[in-house]
Design a protein that fits this description.
The protein is of the alpha+beta class. The chain has a single domain, classed as Aminopeptidase. The protein is built from 5 helices and 7 strands. The radius of gyration is 15 Å and the shape is globular.
């Protein structure tokens, strides 16, 4: 990681209130239900990056599919003071390793064109092939890019 020390840990129920208070711009602030679900039911795939003093540098929230084969990256947010320091990359790499450890075969998410290069550097590609065509077209029109990576291409370095 570039520059700063960062410790990555799993989200806990105690993180719910911090998530609810955060400024998610440019993303819309979610209803509190999503933060409850992710901190209670999906904490194994949701992480907080902290500095030495325990201040949040970033957060990644993800959820596992009901069949266990894939993971949806719901949110990745890096605090403005920690951007371009490797925090986002460290969080995504941590998710990739964790998914490989527990048998998840694909990580996928929606993003916009501005974020494409960042995710491509981490091994993701634009890929909606696993979606039925009407749903893939809807996603392209209303959600932006569908990015995905397959577990077999995931390295095990942290």
């Amino acid at each position: 990681m570039k520059g700063a020390y960062v410790k990555i840990r799993n989200c806990t129920q105690k993180d719910f209130f911090k998530l609810q208070e955060m400024d998610w711009a440019p993303l819309p602030k979610e209803r509190d239900t999503i933060y409850l679900i992710l901190t209670i039911e999906h904490a194994a795939l949701s992480f907080v990056a902290e500095d030495r003093e325990g201040s949040w540098q970033g957060v990644l929230l993800a959820s596992r599919s009901t069949d266990g084969s894939s993971c949806f990256l719901n949110h990745l947010l890096v605090m403005s003071s920690s951007r371009s320091k490797g925090v986002g990359s460290a969080l995504v790499e941590h998710l990739k390793v964790r998914c490989a450890e527990i048998g998840i075969r694909r990580i996928w998410f929606f993003t916009n064109q501005n974020n494409r290069a960042f995710y491509q550097r981490l091994g993701f590609e634009e890929d909606s092939s696993f979606l039925d065509e009407p749903l893939a077209e809807y996603a392209r029109l209303h959600k932006g890019l569908v990015m995905a990576i397959h577990v077999q291409s995931i390295g095990t370095s942290r």
